[in-house]
Specification:
By secondary structure, the protein is α+β, with helices and mostly antiparallel strands. The protein has helices at about 15-25, 50-60, 65-70, 105-120, 170-175, 235-240, 240-250, 305-325, 330-335, 335-365, 380-385, 390-400, and strands at about 5-10, 30-35, 50, 75, 75-80, 85-90, 100-105, 125-130, 130-140, 140-150, 150-165, 180, 185-195, 205-210, 210-215, 220-230, 270, 275-280, 280-285, 285-290, 295.
Length: about 425
């Protein structure tokens, strides 16, 4: 038997975009249900970077100190090693922000925190192990979501569905939203390698001819992203795990003795990179945000930041109308295009930069003659020589185009101590 829930807003996807949207809408008094298909948020190799602009949002919510009490490391500077030569390229301490660093925090810690805050608001509800399987058509618009749960089928009827279910969005596929693909000539292999005493503390990228790998310092281990040509995983596996270990050692000699910790291909996770964007982010009764609206490359690690900024803009533009029970569905639908109008520019700029880096830097590196020593491009040399210039990439990565600020106000919470 199918159960039914009626709510003002149903958010599909419990990632950064979905959880932040749910929190901000509930904070404004909107009745909201968030659906997450997994049993918990504990998943490896998701975006683990909480950027200065996101930390600013948390500060505006009065939540920054509590968030930073969770386990995290601080990345104040970024560097890159090109052809064995180190270069400093970004310095977040130069930003005019309260937090001049990136918080390296496991995504599950960030999402658990948002959940703990949101559940203080009586209008917030989170359903785990709840997978969207269909949309409810209603008088020419989307009127809700059909859901599979651990307790059986569920029908959620809502005035608005927000799709925040990622780059492989089921909702946008069900809604037959038109996607524009920009191409991604690379894939990424994620892995963990041990961190040892005496290792450099800065997160870094390492470029050698034919090789690129990012190393993120997670305190007790290096979280590594090894870039390969698109679709190259089968060829790589055919060469064998020992050959892959040697390739890692060639690009990062520091880790050569530690590649033995990669016992099998199960220790190496493939991220199939996609860069795409919906031509139109909404249709009556439905709005797409985050990766569901614009899938990002992992370059710069800006995915969480863009998702949170989308959520803030969505709440700023829609919360008042959704909180007012007298606002008709047609009036809500009329507001939906304003989210794309607000967030299209930063999405477009970020994706253009990512595609340029993929095509002009990473592809030539991967296709280069491995017998020739790689030399650093002139922008990298300038950033290393003139420290003041390092604020430019720090701003681009840490703040981004058109940062958002919280405008919605608290309507109700379960206790005076909320939202903690």
């Amino acid at each position: 038997m199918t159960s039914t829930i009626n709510t003002r807003c149903c958010v599909v996807g419990g990632g950064p975009a979905g959880m932040m949207t749910g929190l901000l809408l509930a904070r404004a008094g909107v009745e909201v249900v968030v659906l997450e298909k997994h049993v918990d948020f504990l998943r490896d190799f998701r975006g683990d970077t909480v950027h200065p602009s996101t930390l600013q949002v948390m500060d505006e919510l009065g939540l920054l100190d509590a968030l930073l009490a969770r386990p995290h490391d601080k990345a104040v500077r970024l560097s890159v090693v090109v052809g064995g030569e180190p270069f400093s390229i970004a310095d977040f301490s130069r930003l005019n922000e309260r937090c001049g660093f990136i918080a390296m925090m496991p995504q599950w810690e960030f999402l658990d925190f948002l959940r703990d805050v949101a559940t203080n608001f009586p209008t917030f509800r989170l359903l785990m192990q709840a997978k969207a399987t269909g949309l409810i058509p209603e008088a020419g618009r989307i009127g809700g979501v059909l859901v599979e749960t651990a307790n059986g089928p569920l029908r959620i009827e809502s005035d608005l569905v927000i799709s925040a279910d990622g780059r492989h969005s089921v909702v946008r596929e069900l809604a037959q939203m038109k996607v524009r693909e920009f191409g991604a000539p690379i894939d990424v292999l994620w892995m963990r390698l041990p961190f040892e005493a005496g290792d450099p503390t800065e997160s870094m990228g390492r470029l050698e001819t034919g090789r690129f790998m990012a190393m993120i310092n997670r305190g007790t281990y290096w979280q590594c992203a090894f870039v390969i040509p698109k679709g190259g995983i089968e060829q790589l596996q055919a060469r064998g795990l020992d050959a892959f270990r040697r390739a890692v050692a060639e690009v990062a000699p520091l880790l050569a003795s530690r590649t033995a910790s990669l016992k099998s291909w199960d220790d190496i996770k493939l991220l199939s990179v996609a860069v795409d964007r919906l031509e139109k982010w909404d249709r009556p009764g439905l709005l797409c945000i985050g990766d569901a609206a614009h899938a990002m490359s992992p370059i710069g690690g800006v995915g969480i930041n863009l998702a949170v900024q989308d959520a803030v803009a969505t709440a700023n533009l829609l919360a008042a109308a959704l909180a007012d029970a007298g606002t008709a569905r047609e009036a809500i639908d009329a507001l939906l295009p304003s989210v794309q109008a607000r967030r299209l520019f930063p999405a477009r700029v970020t994706q253009a930069v990512q595609v340029a880096i993929q095509n002009r830097l990473l592809v030539p590196v991967l296709q280069g003659d491995q017998n020739r020593r790689l030399k650093a491009p002139w922008p990298v040399r300038m950033l290393d020589r003139w420290p003041v210039l390092r604020v430019i990439p720090a701003y681009a990565v840490g703040i981004g185009a058109r940062p958002e600020h919280v405008q919605t106000e608290v309507v109700s919470a379960t206790s005076a101590a909320a939202p903690l």
